[in-house]
């Protein structure tokens, strides 16, 4: 397996930091990543996003399935604003996607995965998580985006470019004016060298 992943996160216009977060953890044979959108924006939301990042840092892709990963965020954010999140895991040749609240997921060229985002707010209300699971048999491009990105983007515009360029295009052409905005683009390939040899991702601060 290999994974080339890029992401961009921009704060609400005029704010210094975002309440959105893109997080990626790679291991020898597995991968876990997430986009988190803390409710609201500004400094308090950004501080809570930092806390969410610390919670995510405790998760090991080798042993953490998505139910446990989302539950860790839910428990760790209790008593705070709360957040939406979509989490993805690649492990033992299987791709799993699950989300709570309004963080979109789409595999380019396929139907939307948005149905797998169940209603709820991590930290406040978490019902039964639905996990989309499939074997990773062919290369695919997965796009995860907070609701600061309009969901009606045209896939044709991001088909023939690398993940960094795809993030730039989505941010430039589909950003909503009044929210934090995050987009993550992952090219996942079952038949390439190990994950560690894949391209480095951009840092979340690249454009902030
Ligand atoms: Mn948002």
How does this structure look, described?
- By secondary structure, the chain is of the alpha+beta class.
- It has a single domain (2-191), classed as Phosphatase 2c, domain 1, CATH 3.60.40.
- The chain contains three helices and twelve strands, in the order E-E-E-H-H-E-E-E-E-E-E-E-E-H-E.
- The protein has helices at 43-56, 66-76, 163-174; strands spanning 2-10, 20-26, 30-38, 83-91, 94-100, 103-107, 117-118, 120-121, 125-126, 132-135, 140-146, 181-189.
- Strands 2, 3, 4, 5, 7 and 10 form a six-stranded mixed β-sheet that branches.
- Strand 4 (83-91) and strand 5 form a beta hairpin.
- Helix 1 (43-56) crosses helix 2 (66-76).
- The structure holds manganese (II) ion.
- Manganese (II) ion is lined by residues 37, 146-148, 179-180.
